[in-house]
Amino acid sequence: MAVKGSKYRQLFTGLAFIGPNIAGVFTFVIFPVLFAILLAFSNWDLTKHNIFKDEPLYFVGLDNFTRLFNEGDFVRFLLNTLFLMMGIPFCVAGSLFCAMMLNKDNRGGGGKIYLYLTASALLFVGCIMLTLVGMGASAMTLLLAGVGGTVLISGLGFGQTIFRTLFYMPHFTTGVATYLLWKKLYDPYDGPINNVLNPVLGYVEAGVKVAPSPIVYMMHLALVVVVPVMFAFVLKRVYRWWQDGDLGSQGAFVTILITCIPIAVLVMKFSGFVHWTGKLEAVAIGGASVVMLLLFAIKWWNGKPFQIVEGMYGFGSALAFSLLMLVLMFIAIGLSMVVGNLPEMAQSGLEAPHWLTDYHWAKPSLMIMGFWAAIGSNNMLLYLAALTNVPKGLYEAAEIDGAGRFQTFWNVTWPQLAPTTFFIAVMSTIGGLQGGFEAARTMTEGGPSGATTTLSYYIYMEGFQTGRLSFSAALAWALFILVFTITLFNWKFGNRYVND
Amino acid sequence: MKYIFLSIFLVLLLATFALLSSYPENNTTTPTLYWVTDANPARKDQVEGFQEWLVKHNHVNDDNEPAVQLKLDTANRSDDKIIIQGVSGIGGDILDTYGGTGIRFLGKIGMLDDVTEHAKANGYDVSQTYAPMKEELMVNGKQYGFPCNVGAQIFWVNKDILEEHNQPIPSLNWTVEEFEKLGKAYIKSANKPGERQKNFYMDRIDLILIYRSMGFSSFNETLTATQYNDERFIKSLRLLHKWTYEDRILPSASDIASFNSQQGYGGANLQLFYRGNYAMIQTGRYALIQLRKFGAMNLAAVRPPYLDYPNTVVGTRSAVVYVAGKHKEYAKLFLAYLASEDYNMRIVKTADALPPNPEYTKVEEFLKPKDYPNEWGCHEVFSDAANEIGIGYVYSPYVLRQQMNRYEGDAINAVMSNRMSAEKAASQLQQQVMADIKHNVNLKKYALPELVEQYHKDVELQNKIDELKKQGKKIPLSYIKNPFYRKYYQDKGMVE
Amino acid sequence: MSTIESTKELMRKPAKRSRKIFIQKFLNTGILNVFLTILSMLLILPFIWMLLTSVKPLSEVGTDSWIPSTWQWHNYLDVFDAIPYARYYCNSLLIATWITFLQVTTSALAAFSFSRLEWPGRDKVFMLYLSTMMLPGLVMMIPNYQIMIQLGLVDSIAGLILPGAFSAFGTFLLRQFMLSIPSSLDEAAEIDGASKWRLFWDIILPLSRPGVIALAIFTFVGNYHSFFWPLVMLKSQHKYTLPIGLLYFDSSAGQETNLLMAAVVMSVIPLVFVYVILQKQLVAGIQLGAVKG
């Protein structure tokens, strides 16, 4: 029935409303994007083409992109970025943990319990303060205890709101201001962190010196043993998924391959085959192949009808799982090495790390700061909302089945939270790949010697310090391709999980 | 809702007008020049000097006031900001650059005004300053700036602290072996055993001083290639590492970090030098600005220790004129002022490095400042070094110096933090820089034909030089483009 | 008798059990509260240190004790002498508010068009919008800067506001919200003879209030923290925003950590303010944004 005129009219009204926005989006988003595509394939350099100079611009094809891989810096700074992103799983886990704590009723359901709680909290805080005063504690201890007491009592008074606010504060205020704050906190000699850490390390040093060396060595070995145990756990899980048809064969191989890396590191460390050094990937791939062959052998031996699915099916969750285990295994290896070297280190005196000025500590320092900022962030609020949406009936059913706490979490809560987790994982990955500029510019200037230069800081440096605009644009597109691939990947392999 | 919208809009408009009208307005009709420089207190004095100089040389307006007003801009000093603002057409009128790196890069962008003619007419061409400055200020025969000051890298010595520990004061020319021996002895007597070491012999030594004293330069004679794979370069890296970690003559990065965190204006190392944490510091004459404030110190100055060939690096902070500045003519006058007696005598008095014009290093006020007898005998060390053993930095037209500095810094850092062996760092560095050079000259799309042509000519020349060197013959001086080798070969009698 | 006995038994048992449950519940919640307190203390320790350092004399900054010997409140005033802090403050607030205002307005208009109006090609344009959300801002950095040069907006407040005033994300967020408003309202309005503008201005916009407020908070906070664009764009010191201005304390000229901390405290205050007042809307908005990101 629509007359031609009315159609135009519709279009006109529609565009009139969208007009101001679309004009802006075209000028500041779409046009720049087209511009940036051209830029990445040209040889635009500030020294050649700018408002003062107009040397001819050429179309250079993929030169900028091939150069990016030949120069080595790109890979190096990409690895830096990925290293910093290893903190993300911990941040997400921390957020989930906080959300679960906050989701519990902290007033005991009100009524009599609440009264008793408040009364005993007051008593508790009062007693502690009095004891501290009686002991002649320093003003600082008193102050901290006082603040803690206030938080406890007001937490009871106002309920979850006060805790939620305190958890959320670090994230909400994160910016240049808090980066400068952390820079001062990390100060190697005057910063409060090392002021606290140094005496503690002094005690550890004294303890290690006193402790008989076999004990220290046993602890070292125990930590080493943890790694194969974790590997066995991974194998068990993967085998189960594979057997149940939750995971394809190729997917299983990749997950096992990933967790083989720490094992390969261990083997190389203890085998004494010096000539193996530097062939980590060969060892890992070989190990993973052997393990896969063994799995096939077991399958063939048992002769049971398995639902074997080929391909990368169910890869997303298995990948996330194996990456998490990878990080945990490396932590165990790192700890074992630290413990193993403790006696030697204690001899020369333990010293607190120099955080941002130390090449090896700079990245972990930024990760710790990131954890602080991310644990109570939007992710926590999202989890909190998702938790309240979990049907209560499911928990009741689990309770009737006699499921323990961990089982309830694993079988009820976790699957229910899957869509949220998926969303958070995608957003954090994208954010992580693009992040790091502000911290690098304000805290470390990308140093020490490039240790904290992430891709975004590298793009800035190439654009505005060496003036290679085209190369910088090519870098930015490479970053985009990464983000895009990861998002696609997530949709392809993560969707199964979400649609459950 | 709609009233909220409208009222917010109105409030915003009002606030914006209020804010915009509160911006400092330039009511005066006299044009204003902005000088982008660092936040050194001596700059204020230099600005006043310019205003007086203008009046003296009759650059005045109708009211007999200086025809132009000079203001400092210290917030935009960082390199990235200078570039960003430069290419946007809003750069400062006069920019400070450090040595030839900035001049070359900004010049390549086209941000700098060619002052060659004006300099000749107004007496501030390169003949008015130290000989090594010619390489820094001139690119392809065009002059782009004039030094604000010139600095020769010399070691300041805290005589008191050496005497306190019964250590000898090093002689003006000394070898690396002597340096090492004295350094170790000092460290031993100045630090208590079992405590964190707080006293060091020196604050730092630039790697370039060590390898140049072996007759090595990072570039070859014609600037077509770097030669980091040389054993002399590797040896210098090893020496630096040894002095820092084995002998503990020099502080490590974390030692420095611990010092820097303590408060105080400007370079913390000067304060540490005054307090005796460093017995010596490697710096220019400008250290005196701060040192004089701390109080009278018993000072001496010595040249850097050498292995084979005594020399030192001469650098400069020079002023350049922004090409899109509104008052370029006046900005160029500022360069003329830098060459004048007014400015040079101010530098002499405030001890802001060496005066750009070497004439003023011969006056009594420079050599023996009345109020500071403790410095007598030190000043000529700086001026003599700049004149006799000073050589500027080396710049190649085929690679960006700042990029090279980054690679070099990373390599040194990797060695100094024990992440890489000196050999590996050197070969990696060589690879990185050569890849850049290859990229910059081999593709016609990236390089102008003239540059490519020149490169191939230079490579041929280099082959000739290598041939001559192999035969043990003398090399024609005109072949050599690297300023270091030019002086080195001359001093060693290897050129004809 | 046996029945009486058994009823007594029945009555006693729950009482005993409920006391047990009561104690268990009491202990559980008690431990939970202590635990939450410890966790939140760990998270706010940096802030406590910051507050205490901001009132310390300079000489005590690096010392072991967190408590200042004299509470030097005038540090807060000294900040205003060290840098033109008030000006930075005003600039920051004004720029962030302008961007918020413009972005909310343009986004609401566009969202209305995408959700309530029928016009040919609408969904295609919307897909285009959505796809731009995936692009990293860094891709646009250099072209946007070149645009600013061409427009002559470098080193101007307008140059900071304009690129932030139009957002695909904001449009998306508000569209989601407007879609949840029942369409029967439109029909009713049409029957009354109301124009599309009236429909938007009098009905849809007031009903989208929670979404608008959530978007406003996001935009304001994001732009209040904004660092990169002002860093690139601003030259004149009197136009600096807070994040850029604070960098002064990171240079060799400004080593006064106590003043830095005072400045940081003051810069964080507006955010705390915004959060405390609007936290409910904020939480709602975060969920809205995540519905289908």
Name a few traits of the molecule.
heterotrimer; A: 500 residues; mainly alpha; MetI-like fold; 20 helices; B: 496 residues; alpha/beta; D-Maltodextrin-Binding Protein, domain 2; 6-stranded mixed sheet; 4-stranded mixed sheet; 12 strands; 48% helix; 11% strand; globular
Give an account of the 3D structure.
Chain A folds into four domains: 4-65, no CATH class; 66-106 and 174-188 and 354-500, MetI-like fold; 107-158; 190-352. Chain A has 20 helices and no strands. Chain A has helices at 4-40, 63-70, 73-85, 88-103, 111-134, 139-158, 160-173, 176-185, 192-210, 213-244, 249-271, 280-302, 315-348, 359-374, 378-389, 392-400, 405-434, 437-444, 455-464, 469-499. In chain A, α2 packs across α20 and α19 runs antiparallel to α20 (469-499). Chain A starts with a helix and ends with a helix. Chain B is an alpha/beta fold. Helices cover 48% and strands 11% of the residues of chain B. Chain B has 21 helices and twelve strands. In chain B, strands 1, 2, 3, 6, 11 and 12 form a six-stranded mixed beta sheet that branches. A four-stranded mixed beta sheet of chain B has the order 8-9-7-10. In chain B, strands 4-5 form a two-stranded antiparallel ribbon. Chain B is globular. Chain C is flat and about 75 Å long. Helix content of chain C is 74%, strand content 0%. Chain C contains 13 helices and no strands. At the A-B interface, α2 of A face α3, α4, α11, α18 and α19 of B.
